Amino acid sequence: MAEVTLHSVRKVYPNGHVAIDEATFGIRDGELLVLVGPSGCGKSTLLRLIAGLEEATSGSILIGERDVTRLEPRDRDIAMVFQSYALYPHMTVARNLGFGLELRGHEPAEIEKRVNEAAQMLELTQFMDRLPRQLSGGQRQRVALGRALVRHPQVFLLDEPLSNLDAKLRASTRAEIARLHRTLGTTMIYVTHDQVEAMTLGQRIVVLDRGIIQQIDAPMQIYERPVNLFVAGFLGNPAMNFFRGRLRQADGLVLEGEGAQLRLPAFKAQTGQEIVAGVRPEDLHVVEGTAAPGGGLTGTVELLESIGSEAFIHATCGGWKLIARASPYNLPAVGARITLQPAPDRIHFFDAQTGKRLEQ
C-alpha cells in the first residue's frame, strides 16, 4: 500500500490539445478515490499517466516516496483493470489468474497460493477450469479483478471496469469492489463517468471537466456544497434545477427570470445582480393550491415519470423548466397547474458569469 501524489501534472498532445492541466492532489494510503466526469474530461488520461501508459508533459507523480514520473509501467508496482476484460481466451480461469506471475518468474507454489487466495475472495473457485467464453460478464470481470489482485501491488487502478455490464451486474460487481477494498485496505483509484458508482464507491471524488480538476472532496460534501455550476449539474440524478435571473427587492429578495419569479432567503448579493439559483429535485415540494406561503413556483405539469418507489414531476414555470421528486401516489395530471415550494435552506446560489458558488 502507498500514497500517490501528483504535483502540477500536465498532459499536452502534439496537436496542442491539453488533456490534463495542472493536476495537483494526493491519494491517501488505503483510500478508494474516484475520478469522475463526462466523456473527454481527461479522467482516463489521468489514470494512464499514473499507470505510466501515457507520459506527462510536465509535473511529477510519486508512489510512496518514489518519483515514478519517467518509470515504465512494470516498474511502478501498480495493477490495472481495464473496461475490456482482456482475458486470454485459450486459458482457463486459473491460468488467466496466474499467468502474469509466471511471466514475472514467481515460484509455482507461490503462484498457486496467490491464485487460490484471489479465487476464494472473488468466489471464483468453482470456475477455475472454465474458459472465459464459458463465463458470464460479471464472472469475467471478477477474473480480471483477480488477475490484478494476485500481483499484490501498492496501487490498484480501475478504468471504467463495469461499463460493459448490465445494470444488475453493475450493482453486484460494484458491491464486490467495495467489499474487496474494505478487505484489502489497498490504495485504489477508480475511473467512471457513472455518478452512482462515484457516490457509492468513492471515499473521496475528484470531479474533472475539460482536463481541469473542479472539486475534490467526500461524495456528500460535493453533493451538498458544489463549488460551481458544472459540479452542481453533473452530480445528481435527476440533475439540479437551475433558475437564472436578476435579483430585485420586493418586500424581500426576489429572483426574476423569463416570465417567472422566485422569492429567496436573504444572502450576500446585490440588487440587479444576475445569478443562478439551484434546487435539487428532492428539495422541491408540492403544495396545495396555486399560492405557496413562501412564494413558490407555479407552473404546468409537462410529464410524469413514475418508477415505483418515487416519481418525477416535470413542469414549466415561465421560461424555467424544473423537475421535482415526489411520492408516486396522488400525482397531479399532465397539463395541471401545480405549485412547488423550494426548501429555503436548500437553495444553492451561483454567479451567472463565472459559475462559482455564492455563499449565503
Walk me through the structure:
By secondary structure, this protein is α+β, with helices and mostly antiparallel strands. Helices cover 23% and strands 34% of the residues. The protein contains 8 helices and 21 strands. It has helices at 43-51, 93-103, 108-121, 137-149, 167-184, 195-201, 219-224, 229-234; strands spanning 4-12, 18-27, 32-36, 58-63, 66-67, 78-81, 155-159, 187-192, 204-209, 212-217, 241-249, 253-256, 261-264, 274-279, 284-287, 297-306, 311-317, 320-326, 337-342, 348-351, 357-358. The strands form 4 sheets. The chain has a 6-stranded mixed sheet with strand order 6-7-8-3-9-10, with helices on both faces.
Q: Quick one: overall form? A: elongated
Strand content: 25-35%
Alpha-beta classification: alpha+beta
The number of helices is 8
Low-confidence stretches: none
The average pLDDT score comes to 91
Helix fraction?
10-25%
Radius of gyration: 25 Å
What is the number of beta strands? 21
What is the first-to-last residue Cα distance?
Answer: 41 Å
Side by side, the strands of the main sheet go: 6-7-8-3-9-10
N to C succession of SSEs: EEEHEEEHHHEHEHEEHHEEEEEEEEEEE
Biggest sheet: strands, sense, closure? 6 strands, mixed
Question: Which key features would you list for this structure?
Answer:
6-stranded mixed beta sheet, 23% helix, elongated, 8 helices, 360 residues, alpha+beta, 21 strands
Gist of the model:
With 360 residues, the chain is an alpha+beta fold.
Write the layout of secondary structure elements.
Layout (H helix, E strand, L loop, with lengths): L3 E9 L5 E10 L4 E5 L6 H9 L6 E6 L2 E2 L10 E4 L11 H11 L4 H14 L15 H13 L5 E5 L7 H18 L2 E6 L2 H7 L2 E6 L2 E6 L1 H6 L4 H6 L6 E9 L3 E4 L4 E4 L9 E6 L4 E4 L9 E10 L4 E7 L2 E7 L10 E6 L5 E4 L5 E2 L2
Parallel strand pairs: 3-8, 3-9, 6-7, 7-8
Antiparallel strand pairs: 1-2, 1-4, 4-5, 9-10, 11-12, 11-14, 12-13, 14-20, 15-19, 16-17, 16-19, 17-18, 20-21
Helix pairs in contact: 2-3, 2-4, 4-5
